[in-house]
Amino acid sequence: MDGLAVKRDGTYLDGTFGRGGHARGVLQRLGPQGRLLVMDKDPDAIAVAMQMAGGDARLAWHRGSFAELAQWDQADAGLDGVLLDLGVSSPQLDVAERGFSFGKDGPLDMRMDCDSGESAAQWLQQASEKEIADVLWTYGEERQSRRIARAIVAQRASEPLLRTAQLAALIAAVLPRGNAKTHPATRSFQAIRIHINRELTDLEVGLDAALARLKPGGRLAVIAFHSLEDRIVKQFMSRHAKAPPANRRMPEVTGFVPALRLLGGAQKAGAAELAANPRARSAVLRVAEKLPVQAMEVAA
């Protein structure tokens, strides 16, 4: 909320509504003329948003990825702030039927929008061993990606992987836990989920769209939960805030005009928040402010 610096008459977009925690925080700070636009892929999240909108005319909702925010006509007039809370939500993790958690047995689904696209089970049944290994390595940084992919392909030849407990047990058998504190399937589940939901692609598109729709002085606040997301956010903000480093082997580049101003660096949860919400332990918040358009000097 501090990062967004909510103005009473401003227009804000929460691109990852979830169950409305951040949305309620924004609404508490908005006046009667303020406006809050919310988006989410998840039909369960949108059901909550619709209920909130029924009792608050300041709120409008749209079911879809925040990557589509530039196509939503409600955002055409410009935004005073955009908030993105990336990754899977707590309700999605806690409901076994959604298939996100290796700790709860359920259908191996993992789709944030359960009405479109292929499920994790469908993808694992037809993807090649190389494709599975590449996904586990690229999106989960899983060093044993090839061993796991080989085991998945061997398993599906005799029995399809349809349940989260099946997949978790298979990975655990390939990678004994030893002294590790985290479950052996942690990285693989993360990687498959990111791939199924196109999370990093949506993030790259969504950041560009957010910058395009922000008004001068508008704030972009992004919460990431793992290094892949945070790296994209950090590089995006830096690219639009700082001139590229000089290269003495290349002609000097002139005319760089920053579009963003960084507001501090990476912010993490303090002890009090971690005590109340342990899932915040890996959260990283970055905030930037859109700068006014500056006329570039033209050499005579």
Descriptive report:
- With about 300 residues, this protein is of the alpha/beta class.
- The chain folds into two domains: about 10-85 and about 200-290, Rossmann fold; about 90-195, DNA polymerase, domain 1.
- It is about 40% helix and about 15% strand.
- The chain contains eleven helices and eight strands.
- It has helices spanning about 20-30, 45-55, 90-95, 120-125, 130-140, 145-160, 165-175, 185-195, 200-215, 225-240, 270-275; strands at about 10-15, 35-40, 60-65, 80-85, 215-225, 260, 265-270, 285-290.
- Strands 1, 2, 3, 4, 5, 6, 7 and 8 form an eight-stranded mixed β-sheet that branches.
- Helix 1 links the parallel strand 1 and strand 2.
- The model is unreliable at about 295-300 (pLDDT under 50).
Beta-strand fraction estimate:
15-25%
Do you know the CATH architecture of the largest domain?
A: 3-Layer(aba) Sandwich
Overall 3D geometry? globular
Helix content: 25-40%
User: What is the CATH level 1 assignment of the largest domain?
Assistant: Alpha Beta
User: What pattern of helices and strands is seen along the backbone?
Assistant: EHEHEEHHHHHHHEHEEHE
Number of strands: 8
Structural class assignment: alpha/beta
- Number of separate helices: 11
* CA-atom Rg in angstroms: 21 Å
Please report the distance between the alpha carbons of the first and last residues: 46 Å
Mean pLDDT across the residues is: 91
> CATH superfamily of the largest domain, please?
Vaccinia Virus protein VP39
The biggest beta sheet reads: 8 strands, mixed
Tell me the number of structural domains: 2
The CATH topology name of the largest domain reads: Rossmann fold
Oligomer: single chain
Low-confidence stretches: 295-300
